[in-house]
Design goal:
Helix content: 10-25%
Order of helices and strands: EHEHEEEHEEE
Shape: globular
Structural class: alpha/beta
Distance between the termini: 62 Å
Number of strands: 8
Strand order of the largest sheet: 1-4-3-2
Oligomer: single chain
Amino acid sequence: MVSSPEVIKPTLTPGSLRRVHHIALNVKDIQASRHFYGTLLGLHELTGEEVPSTLRSLVEAGKVTNFVTPDGIVVDLFSEPELSPPDPDPHRGFTRVNHLAFDIDPQLFDQAVEVLKQNQIPIDHGPVTRPTGRGIYFYDPDGFIVEIRCDAIE
């Protein structure tokens, strides 16, 4: 039996993907999520000309809102009022995405934890301390796990 030559399929070379462009999340209550990401977490909400032109009509219709992190990553929240609620057991993931992590200055970590507690944000676990730093995991209004983490102080 003669074997056929292996076909080499094309791949992207290391470094072709430069950075995360944006993260898009479906949310049940866009106003609760807007408050969570904008007010509680302090992300800048895009308005007017800041909104990507492809999303302006959806933003105007109240179906999408956009935030940007200090390092330029856009977080798009898509209103899905009929979204199935998360599993009643918050430890059972309802999506293939595990969590969204935000980095914070180590000097501000404890303040962030206090903000979560004062606003009665449901905590999954933490704060935890690891050799790489500290983190706390909590839930957004849709039950999606969000982390605030910081590097270890050297």
